[in-house]
Please model this.
Amino acid sequence: MISAVPPAAPPVKIPIRVKPGSARARVGGSYGDKGALVVAVTERAVDGRATAAALRAVAAALGVRRSAVSLHSGATSRDKVLLVEDPPADLVTRLDMLRG
Model:
């Protein structure tokens, strides 16, 4: 008997605004007219450390594996776009709660 594997949900792009060098790490709030998710990290923007910390923080805040979150664009910018592979069904609700 062949079992059908449900198709994976398409990847979702999430715009974020990274605030490196913050006193404490947190994910929440909205930035700009596009509603980018604000991600504050304690790491400085040196050698990609702030970006790596932002990826970890977003994965934890959304309740997904770190490997499911990758950088789509903005490697050297505070404004980045992340890609979430196989997102949970309630991702939009989770993002709305984080954005406030």
Summary: The chain has one domain: 12-99.
